[in-house]
């Protein structure tokens, strides 16, 4: 009797185990798929560079990039500190300025009619072409790089947040009016919670644009930073150094992007609870 019970219990465990694994895989599919894709690309890249004996100066193998990255990690971290701090500062300034301007445009329709067409027009300008102007206006130090990065990352925040504040649920707005809620109460208790997903969408885009803005500015005027490291490696024909700097840029970008995603989850749990 006990042997039968034990065997049936073992059979149930054997059936349940694969189902738990499948559920675990489904729950983490958003992580598994990108990681698996990246690993597949790296494996194919390694095989191609070795099989066809591609020169290192043209396309180094991932193993060579990894070795160079680890060997020069202290220098890369030092340059990443300069780029990361400037990108973080630009992102914070762009988010604050963009959210403030979006709030003004949502509160005052006249301001929206005046400013929104101009913002859309500025979006059409190739902003990278304006980088030398910031160097002329603000010099070759941090202020010019910071201002250009803010200029690059400001527009996604203001446009996305304006859309969220302007498209608040009309039923909720009518309910606020029927309850004699003030304009300030309606704005902060109805419009802002509704616009939070739009704000964070703009912030996610701005986090990447801030890093791009800083790196572009470092190409023009900098003696430190990952943009400077890329130019330095390029001048010495060290392609592996360029890829190492790009890898560090990906890490910095993922950290900033992940911080925005984490902040969104915290705000959703507290503000929208």
UniProtKB/TrEMBL annotation:
Main location per the UniProt record: membrane
Protein location: Cell membrane
Bilayer topology term: Multi-pass membrane protein
Protein name according to UniProt: ABC transmembrane type-1 domain-containing protein
Annotated Pfam families: BPD_transp_1 (PF00528)
Key words, A-Z: Cell membrane, Membrane, Transmembrane, Transmembrane helix, Transport
Entry's Gene Ontology BP terms: transmembrane transport
GO CC terms of this entry: plasma membrane
Similarity remark: Belongs to the binding-protein-dependent transport system permease family.
Bilayer-spanning residue ranges: 30-54, 87-108, 120-140, 146-165, 209-230, 242-263
ABC transmembrane type-1 domain boundaries: 80-261
């Amino acid at each position: 009797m006990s042997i039968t019970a034990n065997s049936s219990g073992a059979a149930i465990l054997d059936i349940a185990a694969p189902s738990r694994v499948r559920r675990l895989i489904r729950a983490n599919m958003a992580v598994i798929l990108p990681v698996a894709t990246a690993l597949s690309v790296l494996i194919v890249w390694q095989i191609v560079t070795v099989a066809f004996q591609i020169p290192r100066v043209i396309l180094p193998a991932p193993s060579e990039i990894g070795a160079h990255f680890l060997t020069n990690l202290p220098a890369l971290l030092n340059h990443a500190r300069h780029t990361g701090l400037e990108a973080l500062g630009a992102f914070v300034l762009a988010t604050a300025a963009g959210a403030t301007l979006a709030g003004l445009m949502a509160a005052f329709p006249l301001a929206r009619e005046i400013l929104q067409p101009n913002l859309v027009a500025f979006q059409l300008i190739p902003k990278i072409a304006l980088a030398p102007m910031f160097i002329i206006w603000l010099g070759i130090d941090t202020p010019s790089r910071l201002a250009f990065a803010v200029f690059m990352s400001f527009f996604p925040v203001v446009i996305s947040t304006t859309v969220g504040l302007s498209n608040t649920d009309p039923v909720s707005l009518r309910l606020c009016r029927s309850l004699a809620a003030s304009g300030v109460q309606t704005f902060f208790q109805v419009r802002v919670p509704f616009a939070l997903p739009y704000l964070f969408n703009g912030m996610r885009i701005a986090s990447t644009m801030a890093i791009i803005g800083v790196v572009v500015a470092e190409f023009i005027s900098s003696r430190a930073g990952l943009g400077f490291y890329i130019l330095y490696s390029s001048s010495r024909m060290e392609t592996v150094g360029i890829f190492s700097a790009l890898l560090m840029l990906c890490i910095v970008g993922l950290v900033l992007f992940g911080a925005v995603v984490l902040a969104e989850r915290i705000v959703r749990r507290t503000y929208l609870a």
